[in-house]
Amino acid sequence: QKSHIFEADFVLSMGGDGTFLETVGHVGEREIPILGINFGRLGFLASVNPENIRESVLKLIHGHYLLDERTMLHAESSTNLFEEGTNFALNEIAISKTDSSSMIVIHTYINGDFLNSYWADGLMVATSTGSTGYSLSCGGPLVMPHSANFIVTPICPHNLFVRPMIVSDDSKIALKVESRSSNCLVSMDSRAKVIADTEANLTISKERFKAKLV
CA 54: distance to chain centroid? Predict the structure, then answer.
């Protein structure tokens, strides 16, 4: 689908925030500015109301707009989990158990130093943009969009004293998974999902390109 987007000055995302995230996935490293028009339920990212489409497009044509650049996440795997050009996310990258399996253990390292072994349904690394999404529903904090942080948020942890942690977005976060079923689910903004053998460890860091929001 990468070839479906041609060179353009702008991309219009017409839907909710889910559509906006899918649009970011198509644009990728091209960094084409995206204007979100909210025909969906949530409008954190897609913030223009449908009745203001004409006014908004005229402002684009006349250059009356600002760009909001958002940091994204980049994932690398010890095995070939991802298709080329799909291993990035604006909101979060999550690793979780499959529907029928028991909880998994995620051994987590920050810049090579051991952080914790999370016994949980899963673990996600979210951006400050994603702090209002999946991370928030799992008890994560709200973080201002340009605060240069990532959030490490466990999903339904077994140990009740385990809490989300905020780290610098210059950090390299390594995840090593143990699972009785020998597989787990990896998702990036709920866009790309794969069943991964647990030998496929993940390293998450800041993506070299950004998402540009109009």
Answer: 30
Query: What are the phi and psi torsion angles at 79 (to 5°)?
Result: -125, 170
The pLDDT-based confidence of 201 (bands split at 50, 70, 90) is confident
Cα 113 to Cα 95: distance, rounded to the nearest angstrom = 20
Q: Can 17 be counted among the known catalytic residues?
A: yes
* Signed CA dihedral, 214, 167, 142, 186: sign only: positive
Residue of 17, 170, 189, 197 marked active site: 17
Q: What percent of the chain has pLDDT over 90?
A: 69
Range 137-142, long-range pairs (CB < 8 A, 24+ positions) = 138/164, 139/163, 139/164, 140/164, 141/166
Single out the residue of 118, 70, 109, 76 nearest to residue 91, CA to CA. 70
Bridge-based pairing state of the strands 192-197 and 165-168: unpaired
Q: Say if CB 158 and CB 121 are below 8 A apart.
A: no
Q: Of 81, 109, 80, 77, which Cα lies nearest the Cα of 174?
A: 109
Which are the contacts of 51, defined by CB distance < 8 A and separation ≥ 6? none
**Structural contact between residues 185 and 98, judged by C-beta atoms closer than 8 angstroms:** yes
pTM of the prediction?
0.91
Query: What are the tokens at 179?
Result: 């699972």
